[in-house]
Amino acid sequence: MKFLKVIRFDASDDHVYEAAARDDEWAVSGCFSFALLEADALVGKTKQAFANGFLAIPSFGRATFTTVSDIGPGERDALAETLADHFIERYGAPGPAEARRAAEDELAFVAELCAEKPINTVFTVHRELAEDGNIREAFRVVQAPGEPQHARIWDIAEHGE
């Protein structure tokens, strides 16, 4: 199965987010964490996390970039358990079964996002608060700039008699 993993190109996330994710952590959209925030709470680093941050697991820090990676069944199950525990502790999920269902839904969403993408595809996320109060979320694949750079290192020349 494919899943998102945090990739850090530099240390900028340390300055942009209240808590930055670590390189190579698994990641989900994390849009759920903004569901109960009022528009006037979206300022500063919270606004940056809302607008552009994936949620990393297990640190629950934010990351600007993620990349598609393979995840094994054992890792995926541990991820679901950690996220379910987070739903109970941080968001007051009514019980383990409900928290696990919510975690599975979040993981399934990410797996579907990655399913048809090649390994190492880089994603960003953009969110905005619509006038109706709903959160709009869009994912973008980051393409490498320009044509692939190749350098010719030798030529083949035919020699006559």
The helix/strand series, from N terminus to C terminus, equals EHEHEEEHHEE
Number of helices: 4
Q: Could you describe the largest sheet, including whether it forms a barrel?
A: 7 strands, antiparallel
Structural Rg: 20 Å
Short description:
It is built from 4 helices and 7 strands, in the order E-H-E-H-E-E-E-H-H-E-E. The protein is an alpha+beta fold and 161 residues long. It has one domain (2-142).
Task: Describe the fold and architecture.
The chain has helices spanning 12-16, 44-52, 73-91, 96-114; strands spanning 2-6, 26-28, 54-57, 62-63, 66-70, 122-129, 135-142. It is of the alpha+beta class. It has one domain (2-142). It has a seven-stranded antiparallel beta sheet. A hairpin with a 5-residue loop joins strand 6 (122-129) and strand 7 (135-142). Helix 3 packs across helix 4. The longest helix is centred in the middle third of the chain and has 19 residues, at 73-91.
Any key phrases for this structure?
alpha+beta; 4 helices
What topology emerges from the helices and strands here?
Blueprint: E1 2-6, H1 12-16, E2 26-28, H2 44-52, E3 54-57, E4 62-63, E5 66-70, H3 73-91, H4 96-114, E6 122-129, E7 135-142
Antiparallel strand pairs: 1-2, 1-5, 2-3, 3-4, 5-6, 6-7
Helix pairs in contact: 3-4
